[in-house]
């Protein structure tokens, strides 16, 4: 705990000495986030945002922290801003599609992934998200198709964690539709 206190003290000193440098607030936010102190992390990230409003990495931290704080709508807002600045960032598209699922906007999430794939080709990393989005729409056929594609793809890549989650989601889908 002594190192924790010393780190916080030094970062707060840096913040006071260099108020126009967002790195101190970002580092404090990261420390708080890693300790699951999301409200404190949020406060530090918002302080950094005042100094550096266009920092996409900081906006991502804000988006994820908003999600940890169960403010999914705000998370969506930050993720939407990020993909405007980084239109070919596959991971952020996946994050935003998942966030759309969490705010019950599955059709928007599907359209978002379709648009990305139209420009960049099929993304196997989207299969699980597609499955979940279609399940949210009670579309058994498409949800089943994408969960099975996710299982096959993760198996061929030896991604056992992804494969097990896909099997789990697929079994929930089958149970839900009594298949």
Overview of this protein structure:
- The protein is an all-alpha fold.
- It has 10 helices and no strands.
- It has helices at 2-17, 23-34, 38-51, 56-68, 72-85, 90-102, 106-120, 127-136, 140-156, 160-176.
- Helix 4 (56-68) runs antiparallel to helix 5 (72-85).
Q: How many whole angstroms does the radius of gyration measure? A: 19 Å
Described by strand count, sense and barrel closure, the largest sheet is: none
Q: Write down the secondary-structure element order.
A: HHHHHHHHHH
Shape: elongated
Structural class: mainly alpha
Stretches where pLDDT is under 50 for at least 5 consecutive residues are none
Tally the helices: 10
| Overall pLDDT confidence | 95
Task: Tell me what portion of residues adopts beta-strand conformation.
Answer: under 5%
Task: Tell me how many strands there are.
Answer: 0
Query: Which bin fits the share of residues in helices?
Result: over 70%
N→C terminal distance: 53 Å
Task: State the main characteristics.
mainly alpha, elongated, 179 residues
